[in-house]
Amino acid sequence: MIVRSLNDIEGTDRHIKAASGTWESKRIVLAKEGVGFSLHETVMYAGTETSMWYANHIEAVLCVEGEAELTDEETGETHWIRPGTMYLLNGHERHTMRPKTDFRCVCVFNPPVTGREEHDENGVYPLLTEEA
Question: What class of enzyme is it (predicted)?
């Protein structure tokens, strides 16, 4: 059994801050735990814009605080994401988040991330694995 708090992660290598300065993420469960998914708490900052494309992962996101506009870059469709709203990138959709307030969410990735990934020029995380 693993028990871990967000406070335990603060300031460790599981606490990732984007080079762009637009978001930060606390990686609660990573690939090295061997459970088939990763779990993160992410905060995207008000007034920023982040374009992403998880070509190698499926991501589910549950908003727990704040508001953001989500744009599906493939269809142009927009959605207003508020606390209690979930979105699932089950088709590897290219998407852009535009937080109107600081936006805090809980994210699940499959396959799990290692914590070492960085978005490339297309907003993609590479598919990294952990050595057993």
Answer: lyase
DSSP annotation of 31 reads G
Asked if 63 and 69 count as a contact pair (C-beta separation under 8 A), the reply is no
Asked if residues 100 and 69 have their Cβ atoms less than 8 Å apart, the reply is yes
- CB burial of 61-87 (b: ≥16 within 10 Å; e: otherwise) equals bebeebbbebbbeeeeeeeebeeebeb
E-assigned strands of 1-127? 15-17, 23-29, 38-44, 50-53, 58-65, 68-72, 78-81, 86-88, 94-99, 103-110
- Is pTM beyond 0.90? Reply is no
pLDDT tens digit sequence for 36-57: 999 999 999 999 999 999 888 9
Residue 43 DSSP SS3 = strand
Sequence-ordered list of residues with C-beta below 8 angstroms from that of 94, at least 6 positions apart, any chain:
51, 52, 53, 72, 73, 74, 123
